[in-house]
Amino acid sequence: LGAHGIMTLNDFKSVIGDRLKGVKSIPVQLGERRAAILASSLIDAAQVVAMIILLMQGEYIYAAIIAVLIAVQLPMQKILIAAPREKAIWYNAFGTLLYVAVMMVSALGVRP
């Protein structure tokens, strides 16, 4: 789920070419702003699900770490949504790093 959002971010760098060649990427079909909202929502949903699973297992510290990492991403996503094509590479560098950190924390939290 989250990977779908991250892969959508990759499509922003080629929106102009996609339009010219008739490639129906998500940013072309939905528009750049709506595609950025979709990508951010998918990324957030995957992280929230991971956090909920950890909460259900009583792993409150790991869940709290994830909550903080999500909170750091939200203002970054606001910047991304305001200028998707211009900020997609920036978000891929920093926002995706935080997403991967969440998944690593999740893996530590569910280990036996």
Describe this structure in words.
- The chain has one domain: Four Helix Bundle (Hemerythrin (Met), subunit A).
- The chain has six helices and no strands.
- Helix 4 (32-56) packs antiparallel against helix 5 (60-82).
- With 112 residues, it is mainly alpha-helical.
Question: What percentage of the residues does DSSP assign to strands (E)?
Answer: under 5%
Overall mean confidence score, pLDDT: 95
Q: What is the helix/strand order?
A: HHHHHH
Give me the count of strands.
Answer: 0
Oligomer: single chain
Q: Approximately how much helix is present in the residues? A: over 70%
CATH class value: Mainly Alpha
Largest sheet report = none
Radius of gyration over alpha carbons? Answer: 15 Å
CATH topology tier name: Four Helix Bundle (Hemerythrin (Met), subunit A)
Q: What's this entry about, in short?
A:
The chain is mainly alpha-helical and 112 residues long. Helix content is 86%, strand content 0%. The mean pLDDT is 95.
Secondary structure elements and their pairing?
Layout: H1 2-10, H2 15-21, H3 26-30, H4 32-56, H5 60-82, H6 84-110
Helix pairs in contact: 1-4, 1-6, 4-5, 4-6, 5-6
List keywords for this structure.
single chain, 112 residues, mainly alpha, Four Helix Bundle (Hemerythrin (Met), subunit A), 6 helices, 0% strand, elongated
